[in-house]
Amino acid sequence: MTMHNKTIAEISRDLTAGEYSSAEITQELLARIKAQDSTYNSFITVSDEQAIAQANAADACRAAGNASPWTGVPMAHKDIFCTNGVLTTCGSKMLSNFVAPYDATIVDNFNQAGAVSLGKLNMDEFAMGSSNESSFYGPVKNPWDTERVPGGSSGGSAAAVAARLVPGATASDTGGSIRQPAAFCRLTGLKPTYGRVSRYGMIAYASSLDQAGTITRNAEDSAMMLNVMAGFDAKDSTSVQRDVPDYTASLNDSIEGMTIGLPKEYFSDALSADMQQQVRNAIAEYEKMGAKVKEISLPNSHLAIPAYYVIAPSECSANLSRMDGVRFGYRCEDPKDIEDLYKRSRGEGFGNEVKRRIMIGAYALSAGFYDAYYKKAQQVRRLIKNDFVSAFNDVDIIMSPVTPTPAFKFGENANDPVAMYLEDIFTIALNLAGLPGMSVPCGQVNGLPVGLQLIGNYFDEARLLNAGHQFQQVTDWHLKAPNGIA
After folding, report:
1. Alpha-carbon distance 158 to 161, whole Å?
2. Residue 224: which residues within 8 A CB-CB, separation 6 or more?
3. Which residues make beta-bridge pairs with 135?
4. How many CB atoms lie within 10 A of CB 233?
5. By the 8 A CB rule, do 168 and 216 touch?
6. What beta strand segments (E) does 180-277 contain?
7. Closest CA to 184 of 401, 347, 342, 369
8. For the chain, what is the radius of gyration of the CA atoms?
């Protein structure tokens, strides 16, 4: 097996065994990115010099006997995470000239662990989108079918991992932006509990919903990444002070006796018969392993999308107010006065989807409408959370589809924002409740990947990873590579 086909865990073991050096695998992956990424457009910035320097430093650490499991392992970061001295754009013209002066906490965590960062990955502008079509740097192509979207907003992370350009990548999830692209690209995507991973240095979209996570080939690699990322951070007021387990330690535990809840609202007419069959086939594998299945109800789940699309735009309108051409961001040329400077800088710097959400949010927060929209949406959010709390009194884990359809073609939903928003119908409720969620490959429809969503109780990522890993011991969906990718 060539080096680029190795998983994170395999690379870590190979480096420990001296099968090859970090410099060798880093150079192979950089050459692969240079030769192939023009097809996928998954990278915004490739950090060649920094990566080679980090790889050489990692090899020196290993030679001195100072290695951790991550020393010399290559990966890449979604371009939403500030990276000291590297262009950090959030996929937007507004930040196309912003070189971050500091590292996000999770970037620093990987640096401290000895990982090698190959660069910054493409994304929907300011993480707003479900298709990676809204990036200022152009759409990302799905390696399974380059006429189809890879999902969003973490589409660059998903495409790069699926195309074997990197073994794993950081990502972020506000309403499904890790799980949906992972499902579309036959990958494993993990969104941890809100507060489990620091948000410091992650450029904010919707502060009460955003959560950093991982996109990898399998659950073992996700566990290895979460071991580095999870933990309390005094620089993040939303970070939770709670012990961090070794997420790899329980991967091989038996799931016999585990109770799986199937929400009847998620197996409805919104899901095609073909998609439903793939998900039910996956759940049958869990029953063979000794898990018990019971139907549950999440009665307020139908309110998740309307609540989300009031809360998220409201928070985005506040967070992006600082992108004005004065404090941050693109500045228009030759402004006539201060009003012209603000109007044209924001008008030229933001794309259509970002403008749409800023306008929705500004309206929802305006005088006379706050109680009717934002406050009401927050009250609905509490009802959605209570549904999950009640369900977890009876089950250990909840399973559902990730998406209502496989990856759709470019332009298919471009002129229908509501149709695009409905792509997140099964993922959004978790962000509103702050719960951890995971997507694992579980089948295909018309040759396109399908994902199974695993939903855990608060801070129960270890159980999710265990369940995902055990499924991947008895299935091979996660082992398949896109056509033409050797």
Report:
1. 5
2. 8, 9, 12, 69, 70, 168, 247, 248
3. none
4. 21
5. yes
6. 188-191, 211-216, 259-263
7. 401
8. 21
Count of helix runs (H) and strand runs (E) in the chain:
15, 11
Whole-angstrom Cα distance, residue 4 to residue 139? 24
Q: Decide: 79 and 91 in contact? Cβ < 8 Å.
A: yes
- Helices 304-319, 376-391: axis angle to 10 degrees equals 120
> Helices in 146-271 by DSSP H: which ranges?
155-162, 179-184, 219-229
CA distance 149 to 155: 8
**What's the predicted TM-score (pTM) here?**
0.96
Neighbouring C-beta atoms of residue 347, cutoff 10 Å: 10
Beginning with the edge strand found earlier in the chain, give each strand of the sheet holding 259-263 in spatial order: 43-46, 116-121, 74-78, 168-173, 211-216, 188-191, 437-445, 448-455, 397-401, 259-263, 292-296
Question: Which residues are tagged catalytic?
Answer: 78, 153, 177
C-alpha to C-alpha distances, 361 to 202, 365, 437, nearest whole angstrom: 20, 6, 26
The pLDDT tens digits of the residues spanning 386-444 come to 999 999 999 999 999 999 999 999 998 877 777 788 888 999 999 999 999 999 999 99
